Amino acid sequence: MISILWKRGQSPRKRRSTAFRSSTITGCSTYFADKGGPEFKADWNTLVNNARVYTPDDKAIQTPNSDTPYSYVGADLRAEPLVFTVPKVENGRYYSLQFIDLYTFNFAYVGSRATGNGEGHYLLAGPGWKGKKPEGITSVITCETEFAFVLYRT
């Protein structure tokens, strides 16, 4: 189970409603930590592709679109950053990677509207990472929490 401790003086966005925080924390835990649970998808830092749309039977996380197949990663950033590589996507086709921290703050987007349809290599780092942008990395994305949820749409 993932624990979060709030500190005095944190930014207002970190004080989101308990229901929203709980949904993301529970979803990440259910999808990536509870290997015996009915909604377990994969280990942390593993890309999961869903070839079906979600139904009311999927209760761990509410999905924004009920007619969109999703892919996702439960990112554990405690040990080291992760690199997300996206290929060139043909013009006119939409795709996005939505980066969500454990406070349910959407802290970054990669995709047609945010970064264009060209290929790219995006390094996702946790709050303790102090490195410099490696060669070949398009952009460094920093998360304020040690765990994140990355939601793909195409």
Report on the structure:
This protein is mainly β and 154 residues long. The protein has a single domain (12-56, 67-153), classed as Immunoglobulin-like, CATH 2.60.40. It has one helix and eight strands. It has a five-stranded antiparallel sheet with strand order 1-2-8-4-5, with helices on one face. The longest helix has 16 residues, at 18-33. The protein is globular and about 45 Å long. The model is unreliable at 1-23 (pLDDT under 50).
- Apparent shape: globular
Please estimate the helix content: 10-25%
* Strands ordered across the widest β-sheet: 1-2-8-4-5
Number of helices: 1
Give Rg in angstroms: 16 Å
CATH topology: Immunoglobulin-like
The biggest sheet amounts to: 5 strands, antiparallel
Sheet-strand content, in percent, reads 25-35%
Low-confidence stretches: 1-23
User: How many independent structural domains?
Assistant: 1
In brief:
The chain has 154 residues and is mainly beta. Helix content is 10%, strand content 28%.
SSE inventory with pairings:
Elements: H1 18-33, E1 48-49, E2 70-76, E3 82-86, E4 96-101, E5 106-111, E6 120-125, E7 139-142, E8 147-153
Give descriptors for this structure.
single chain, 154 residues, mainly beta, Immunoglobulin-like, 5-stranded antiparallel sheet, 3-stranded mixed sheet, 8 strands, disordered N terminus
